[in-house]
Amino acid sequence: MKSIALIHTVKSLAISFDQMLKDYVGEEVKVHNLWDDFLANNPNEIGEFTIDNRNRLFNDVKTAELTGTDMIVVTCSTLTPIVGMIRPFVKVPLIAIDDEMGRKAVTYGDRVLILATAGSTQGPLTDKLREEAAKLGKMIQIDFLANAEAFAAMKALEMEKHDALLLEMAKDISGYDCVVLAQASMAHLDKRIEEICGIPVLSNISFCLQQVKETLSTL
């Protein structure tokens, strides 16, 4: 049986992601979970992803690798750029949750809005989108909108409040070619936000699951 190690920073996602993955991939897999909320909380509090945090994520990835897993998936958008730095030092496929979504988002047009709850996702996801746009020879405008109150609600597992705040924000969104939901903890709102603002909304979970399934088929 193939195995997948998941590295999370958000409790609500850690609770639900492994079952979503098992349901999606279409084959029996063993899943290991590692939850390290410090790697989301600390960058959001201090405004940067420090060298110590890079080392911490490296250690988390190597710990996951030591389970003998066939693949590692990091489910936090804040960590996406660092995953790319770590990838050459890992023997198994290492997937960041925004990899596939980033590639897709820049094909919609020139104006992209990143909708978030955690401010720490701004730099990593903006860099990811610019990197993917550059591969296509494109220049894109990227705006960022975050709701710290929704982030606090999510951390407290008050998801009804979290959802209500984001859906209210969606009413004021217009003029973009697509909206990118910055965190996997927002993904369940993609269709509802799309209905409210009338703009294509991309969430990273669906794209990540697709990438995991395709990678599994090659192992």
Question: What does this molecule look like?
Answer:
The strands form two sheets. A four-stranded parallel β-sheet has the order 2-1-3-4, sandwiched between helices. A four-stranded parallel β-sheet has the order 6-5-7-8. The chain is about 50% helix and about 20% strand. The longest helix is centred in the N-terminal third of the chain and has 15 residues, at about 10-25. It is globular, with a radius of gyration of 17 Å. Helix 1 (about 10-25) packs across helix 10 (about 205-215), helix 5 crosses helix 6 (about 120-135) and helix 5 packs across helix 10. The model has no long low-confidence stretch (mean pLDDT about 90). With about 220 residues, the chain is of the alpha/beta class. It has ten helices and eight strands.
- Strand content bin: 15-25%
End-to-end separation in angstroms reads: 11 Å
SSE order, as H and E? EHEHHEHEHEHEHHEHEH
> What share of residues is helical?
40-55%
Low-confidence stretches: none
Q: Supply Rg.
A: 17 Å
Largest sheet: 4 strands, parallel
What would you call the structural class?
A: alpha/beta
Overall shape = globular
